[in-house]
Design goal:
Helix content: 25-40%
Structural class: alpha+beta
Mean pLDDT: 84
CATH architecture of the largest domain: Alpha-Beta Complex
Number of domains: 3
Strand content: 25-35%
Order of helices and strands: HHHHEHEEEHEEHEEEEEHEHEEEHEEEEH
Largest sheet: 6 strands, mixed
Low-confidence stretches: 1-51
């Protein structure tokens, strides 16, 4: 995807800010004059180099007036860190757009985001999102500390170590939950309008993108492909699984596929298109992206897939989001699969991840995506062909014996094979 960089000169600005703070110690009036004079051209290039026709009405002197008053009046001088204040100002600007999926990342937060998609980090092992502007658990990862502590998909996180998440961004919440291995974090969760605390010990989390196993039932042998997320390693891991399954199907030792995208929070759009391209015919549309300027881009299958004829069923639930919904929805719309499980999460917007100066980042909503049949599922999700709900016990465990959704998928798939 083409990247567009916002022309921030972070290093220069921080140096200017630091210089101004130094001058303030020598005399407020002189510093105020010098600071305004030296930075006028810099901030003109940053804030006025846009196509916004209202730019002339913005008097940025208010920013510096506020900055200087804080320097002069605020009682806790040790908290007046120029870099933190600078990043906070940018966060506020981005947050004013009132889009929960458009946010600014400090260098540390941006690296955490990259680590997530790389499949390795230290934390509790839960994918978080936003629902009704509240931080919600999309899904705990399999065998993670979060899952073992009883965290469930759909739980709202109201507090982290006693601090409310109400005024925190998603990434600020994630940053507070993250921490060194073998340390603990206390989450205040809300489930069915009831609050309770859960103490979780952080561990190093390793997330395989694709897991392949087999299910033997009667005379049939089924490949069970679980896609946990669409990240940096997904395509390579998918290729390995596909080669094995395609070979087994060709020699008659595998009869069908259960494609499991339950509790998959999404990731790279292009990766979901790549996976779909082994299951749909060349030229078929996977998803259409529509931008605010009225332009659109269609993502179609560009190669000859290896699993075009093998019978399959797809599992979804409320933790299936974004790129996972694109894959499941495209397969459904082209009649390639039946969907079994629960209604999906319902995230139908596209974000572009931009790397900025100094390691900072910006995730910005650039478009909405539309399924091949024209559905925009934002906020509504995808309804399964056959709705089956797993009854999770107080231990938050689902075993092969109690997984009603998978049992139904097997039953449906066996009917297709016959």
């Amino acid at each position: 995807m083409k990247k567009h960089f916002f022309p921030l000169t972070t290093t220069n600005i921080i140096l200017i800010i630091s210089f101004a703070v130094f001058l303030f110690g020598s005399g407020y009036k002189y510093a105020q004059w010098k600071f305004t004079s030296d930075t006028h051209n810099v901030f003109s290039s940053i804030f006025y180099n846009t196509s916004n026709k209202k730019q002339d009405s913005v008097d940025f002197q208010l920013f510096w007036d506020t900055w200087n008053k804080l320097e002069q009046k605020f009682i806790s001088k040790e908290k007046l860190d120029p870099e933190t204040m600078f990043y906070g100002a940018i966060k506020g600007m981005v947050a004013s757009l009132d889009d929960p999926y458009t946010f600014f990342l400090t260098p540390k937060e941006n690296q955490q985001s990259k680590d997530d998609l790389g499949g390795k980090f230290q934390g509790i092992g839960a994918q978080l999102g936003l629902k009704d502007n509240r931080v919600v658990v999309i899904a705990p990862l399999s065998n993670s500390p979060a899952e073992q502590a009883g965290v469930r998909a759909g739980d709202f996180i109201n507090k982290v170590d006693g601090k409310s998440t109400k005024d925190l961004t998603l990434f600020e919440t994630v940053a507070k939950i993250r921490g060194p291995e073998n340390t603990k974090v206390v989450l205040t969760l809300e489930r069915k309008a009831k609050e309770f605390d859960v103490s979780i010990e952080r561990k190093e989390i390793l997330i395989p993108s694709v897991e392949l196993s087999y299910v033997a039932t009667g005379s049939a042998r089924l490949a069970d492909i679980k896609i946990n997320q669409f990240g940096d390693t997904t395509n390579a891991e998918w290729n390995s699984a596909v080669d094995e399954v395609a070979s087994a199907y060709a020699n008659g030792t595998v009869d069908g596929i259960i494609l499991d995208v339950r509790d998959n929070p999404g990731g790279y759009l292009e990766s979901s298109v790549y996976v779909a391209s082994d299951l749909l015919k060349k030229g078929q549309e996977v998803v259409r992206q529509e931008s605010s300027d009225g332009s659109s881009k269609s993502y179609k299958v560009q190669r000859d897939g290896k699993l075009l004829t093998i019978p399959m069923v797809t599992l979804i639930n409320q933790g299936s989001a974004s790129a996972a919904e694109i894959l499941a929805g495209a397969l459904r719309d082209h009649g390639r699969t039946k969907l079994v499980g629960e209604k999906s999460f319902g995230k139908g917007s596209v974000q572009e991840a931009l790397d900025l100066k100094g390691g900072a980042g910006l995730h910005v909503t650039i478009a909405k995506w539309i399924l091949p049949n024209g559905d925009w599922i934002n906020g509504t999700g995808i309804e399964p062909s056959m709705k089956v709900e797993n009854m999770i016990d107080e231990e938050n465990t689902v075993t092969e014996e109690t997984d009603k959704q998978k049992k139904k998928a097997i039953e449906v798939l066996l009917q297709v094979i016959k």
